[in-house]
Write a sequence for this structure.
C-alpha cells in the first residue's frame, strides 16, 4: 500500500479475505446535494412597492474576486460583469418562507469586511475586531436560510459553502465558498461544467455573541466550522491561516459536526496521469477546508483498488471512500465492496467520486457532475445518490463482476484498452471505428436495447436521474426535506436497501424479433431468456452503417429514437453468442473481462428466482 502524504489518521487497515456472494442492487454515492444551479439563485426580494410584472431580474455581481484571501469583494450590486439572479415574484418574492430559499435559520445584520489580512493587523484593529457595542459600519440585513446565505442583494447558496472559520472571542467569522465563476464570457456560462474558484467572505457582526450565533446557525446547517484560537493567544509569528483548530467554544460544542474521516483511493495513471494533479491541486484543499481527515492511497497496479475496498477496516474511514480516477477505479472499488464478507456493510459505505479519468461517464451520467471541484463540493455537502448495481456472471472460475453503467458483450470495444494511452478519451471512438471497418459481416437490421432497471425508476426520464438526490448527514441520519426526490426510495446509509414497496416487475413480455436468415445464422444468434422472456440479438440483412449511426446516437443519448431500435426493460438477461467473429470478452463500466460462454446480467439475482 503506497501512501502519499495527507492528513494523518489513526488506525491501520485490517485485511480480510472475501468471496463473491450475491449482487446488491443499490449503492450510495456522494452527490451534489442541491445539484448545480444553472439559473441557480432565486432571491425573494422584499416587497417595496417597486415591483413590476410577474418576474424580473436583479443584477448582482461578483467584482474583484480575490481568490483565497479574506475580505473578498464578491457580489456587488450594479457593477460591470453581471451575475443575474432571477426574482420570481408571486412565487417567492417578499415571502421570507419561500421554498426557493428554504426557511430562515437566523437573521441579523452583517457587514462584509473587504480588507485583506485583517488578522495580521489584529492589534491595530482590535477595537473593530473585538469591540462590543461598536457601530456596525456598512451593516446590511442578512439571513441564513436552509438553502443560502443572503445579505443585502447578495445570495450565496449553501451548496457552494465549504466551511466557516471562527476565531474564538472575535466578532467576525469567515465563510469559505466555491461559487461559480461568473467573470467568464457569456458564452462560457452555457457550458455544462461550471468553473468555480475559492472565495472567502469575512463578515463582521455587532458583537462576539452575535458572531457565535451566526456560526452556530451555519453549524446547524451542517456546514463544517473551523474553530481557531484567538489571534493573540497563538504565537505572534503564526499567520492566521496557519492556526491550528481548537475545540469549539462551549456555545458551539454540540452544534459543530465532527470532521469526516474518509479513505481516498487514487489511481495515478487515470486521465493519462493527471489525477494526482487534480487531487492534490484542486480537490484536497477543499477537503482540508472542510476539515476532512483523509488517508490517501495511490494504487500501484490494476486490481489494487479492489483489494483495498474489499479489505479496508471501515472504522478507519467511517464516512466513506473517495475514488479519484476514471470509471475503472470506481468499478474496482464497487467490486471490492461487494465482495466483502459482509455485503450489507459493503453497500453501506458511501462512495465519493472525483472525476479525474479520461472518460468519467459514471459520475457524469449518474451524478450529473463533470468537474472535480463540483464533485468535491458534493462530497463535502454530504448528499447521497442511490444507484442500481448489476451483476454479470459467466466469467472464468465462476466469478461475478458488478457494474453501474453499462455492460457490453463481444462487440466493438475490445480494442479500447490498447488505445488508451495513445488516444485517451477518444479511444472508444477510434477503437469502435476501426473495429467497424474490420467486421464487414456484422450488419444490423434491428437493434434491441435492453435496459436493466427498476420499474419505479423506469418511469423517470433519464436526464432527471441527477435530481434523484438526497442529502443525508451520516451522523444524525437527517434527511434533507427540501430536496427533490423522484422515485428513489430512501437512503441506504447503514441498512439494507430500502424500497417504498417491494419492487414489482412487469409481467414478462416475450419479444419477438425477426430471426436471422439461415445463411447468416453463424454470425449472430439470439437467445431467449426464459426468466424474463426477453430476446436479444442482432440481425443481419440490411446495411451496416446502422451500427455506426446507432453508436453515434448512443453517445448523445438519442439512440432510442431510431426506428430500428427496440427498447425493453428487464431485470435479467441471458446472452449467448455464436459465430466465429464474436469476441469472447465482456466489458463492464469500461473494463474488459474474459468470458466463459453465455453471460447472465442481472439487476438482482436473488429476486429473479
Ligand atoms: N497504478 C496503476 N497502474 C496501472 N493500472 C492501474 C493502476 N491503478 C489502477 N489501474 C487500472 O487502470 C485502469 C484505468 O483506470 P481509470 O478508469 O481510473 O482511468 P481512465 O481509464 O483514465 O478513465 P476512464 O475509465 O474514465 O476512461 C483500471 O482498469 C485500473 O484497474
Amino acid at each position: 500500500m503506497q501512501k502519499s502524504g495527507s492528513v494523518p489518521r489513526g488506525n491501520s487497515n485490517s485485511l480480510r479475505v472475501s468471496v463473491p456472494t450475491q449482487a446488491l442492487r443499490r449503492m450510495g454515492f456522494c452527490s451534489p446535494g442541491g445539484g448545480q444551479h444553472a439559473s441557480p439563485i432565486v432571491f425573494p426580494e422584499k416587497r417595496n412597492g417597486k415591483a413590476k410584472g410577474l418576474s424580473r431580474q436583479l443584477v448582482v455581481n461578483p467584482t474583484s474576486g480575490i481568490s483565497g484571501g479574506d475580505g473578498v469583494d464578491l457580489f456587488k450590486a450594479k457593477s460591470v460583469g453581471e451575475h443575474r439572479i432571477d426574482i420570481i415574484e408571486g412565487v417567492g418574492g417578499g415571502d421570507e418562507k419561500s421554498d426557493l430559499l428554504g426557511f430562515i435559520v437566523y437573521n441579523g445584520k452583517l457587514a462584509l469586511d473587504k480588507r485583506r489580512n485583517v488578522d495580521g493587523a489584529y492589534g491595530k484593529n482590535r477595537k473593530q475586531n473585538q469591540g462590543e457595542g461598536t457601530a456596525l459600519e456598512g451593516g446590511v440585513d442578512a439571513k441564513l436560510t436552509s438553502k443560502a446565505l443572503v445579505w443585502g442583494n447578495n445570495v450565496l447558496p449553501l451548496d457552494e459553502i465549504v466551511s466557516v472559520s471562527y476565531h474564538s472571542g472575535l466578532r467576525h467569522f469567515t465563510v469559505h465558498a466555491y461559487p461559480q465563476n461568473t467573470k467568464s464570457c457569456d458564452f462560457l456560462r452555457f457550458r455544462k461544467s461550471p468553473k468555480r474558484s475559492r472565495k472567502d467572505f469575512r463578515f463582521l457582526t455587532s458583537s462576539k455573541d452575535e458572531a457565535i450565533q451566526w456560526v452556530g446557525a451555519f453549524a446547524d446547517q451542517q456546514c463544517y466550522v473551523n474553530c481557531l484560537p484567538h489571534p493573540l493567544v497563538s504565537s505572534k509569528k503564526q499567520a492566521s491561516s496557519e492556526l491550528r483548530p481548537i475545540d469549539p467554544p462551549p456555545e458551539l460544542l454540540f452544534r459543530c459536526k465532527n470532521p469526516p474521516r474518509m479513505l481516498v483511493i487514487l489511481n495515478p495513471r487515470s486521465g493519462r496521469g493527471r489525477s494526482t494533479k487534480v487531487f492534490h491541486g484542486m480537490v484536497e484543499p477543499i477537503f482540508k477546508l472542510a476539515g476532512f481527515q483523509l488517508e490517501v492511497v495511490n494504487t500501484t497496479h490494476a486490481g489494487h483498488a479492489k483489494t483495498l475496498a474489499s479489505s479496508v477496516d471501515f472504522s478507519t474511514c467511517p464516512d466513506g471512500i473517495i475514488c479519484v480516477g476514471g470509471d475503472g477505479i470506481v468499478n474496482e472499488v464497487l467490486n471490492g465492496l461487494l465482495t466483502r464478507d459482509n455485503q450489507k456493510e459493503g453497500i453501506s459505505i458511501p462512495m465519493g467520486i472525483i472525476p479525474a479519468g479520461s472518460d468519467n461517464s459514471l459520475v457524469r451520467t449518474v451524478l450529473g457532475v463533470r468537474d472535480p471541484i463540483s464533485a468535491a463540493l458534493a462530497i463535502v455537502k454530504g448528499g447521497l445518490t442511490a444507484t442500481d448495481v448489476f451483476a454479470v456472471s459467466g466469467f472464468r472460475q465462476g466469478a461475478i463482476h458488478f457494474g453501474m453503467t453499462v455492460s457490453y458483450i463481444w462487440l466493438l470495444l475490445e480494442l479500447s484498452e490498447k488505445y488508451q494511452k495513445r488516444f485517451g478519451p477518444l479511444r472508444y471512438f477510434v477503437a469502435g471505428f476501426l473495429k467497424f471497418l474490420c467486421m464487414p459481416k456484422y450488419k444490423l437490421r434491428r437493434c434491441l436495447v435492453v435496459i436493466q432497471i427498476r420499474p419505479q425508476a423506469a418511469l423517470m426520464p433519464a436526464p432527471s436521474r441527477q435530481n434523484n438526490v438526497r442529502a443525508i448527514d451520516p451522523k444524525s441520519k437527517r434527511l434533507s426535506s427540501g430536496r427533490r426526490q423522484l422515485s428513489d426510495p430512501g437512503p441506504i446509509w447503514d441498512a439494507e436497501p430500502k424500497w417504498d414497496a417491494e419492487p414489482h416487475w412487469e409481467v414478462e413480455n416475450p419479444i419477438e424479433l425477426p430471426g436471422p436468415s439461415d445463411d447468416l445464422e453463424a454470425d449472430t444468434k439470439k437467445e431467449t431468456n426464459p426468466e424474463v422472456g426477453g430476446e436479444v440479438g442482432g440481425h443481419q440483412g440490411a446495411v451496416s452503417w446502422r451500427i455506426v449511426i446507432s453508436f453515434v446516437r448512443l453517445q448523445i443519448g438519442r439512440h432510442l429514437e431510431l426506428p430500428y431500435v427496440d427498447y425493453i426493460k428487464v431485470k435479467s438477461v441471458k446472452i449467448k453468442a455464436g459465430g466465429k467473429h464474436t469476441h469472447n470478452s465482456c466489458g463492464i463500466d469500461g473494463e474488459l473481462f474474459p468470458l466463459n460462454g453465455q453471460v447472465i446480467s442481472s439487476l438482482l439475482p436473488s429476486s429473479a428466482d
In short: The first helix runs from residue 126 to 130. Residues 267-271, 299-302, 304, 325-329, 332, 357-360, 420, 590-591 surround adenosine-5'-triphosphate (CB under 6 Å). The chain is about 20% helix and 25% strand. Confidence is low (pLDDT under 50) at residues 1-25, 33-97, 453-543, 605-609.
